[in-house]
Structures are given as C-alpha cells and as structure tokens.
Design a protein that fits this description.
single chain; mainly alpha; about 75% helix
Length: about 110
C-alpha cells in the first residue's frame, strides 16, 4: 500500500509541474512570493530588475532551475548572473524562494 501512495505522490508531482509549465505561474503569486524579499532587503536598481526578470521568467515558464539564473538573460545584469548581482547571502535567499515556488508546483 505504501508503494501505491508513493507512486500517487510522484504522479501528482509530475502533473503539477507539467500543468505549471504549460500555464505558467500567476503573476500575483510570483510577486507575492518575492514581495517580502523586495521590501525587507535594501536592493539597488539592478537587483530589483534582476528579481523582476526572475518573476517574469516564472510567470512565463511556471518554474525555474536555480542554475538558469547564471545564464542569459540573467547575465545581462552581471557576467556571473545571480551571485554577481546579489552577492552570496541574497543569492541564497533568491534560490530558496525559487525552490519554494517549484515545490508548490509539485503539490498543486
């Protein structure tokens, strides 16, 4: 019986990510997910633009692998992408937010 439930969870995870990849992420949900980060931390304009680019990507694609923030179009802001723009500490916050959004797609 445990195997059956494990298979069901796996199927739900796959279906959730598939649906999210097709329809994207609601813009309000994406902005809400990053809202506290944008308000709490003092970000300079390039950092805000970078986060907005991440939000746009998530709205269009539904999820994101954190490694994508080290490639174009995110390298437009800095050659090293996420860590170049944000620094290590804030970069980890962004990665954790993206991972949380991805996990939410799996349980939806």
């Amino acid at each position: 019986m445990g195997h059956f439930f494990a298979v069901c969870r796996l199927v739900n995870s796959i279906v959730g990510r598939l649906v999210r990849s097709i329809i994207g992420l609601d813009i309000n949900a994406a902005k809400e997910a990053f809202g506290e980060f944008l308000q709490k931390d003092s970000l300079h304009p390039d950092q805000i633009a970078f986060v907005n680019e991440v939000i746009d990507y998530l709205v269009k694609n539904g999820s994101m692998e954190p490694k994508e923030m080290f490639d174009a179009p995110f390298t437009h802001y800095h050659d090293h992408g996420l860590t170049g723009v944000m620094g290590e500490e804030m970069a980890m916050k962004v990665v954790n937010l993206v991972r949380q959004i991805n996990e939410n797609a799996e349980v939806a």
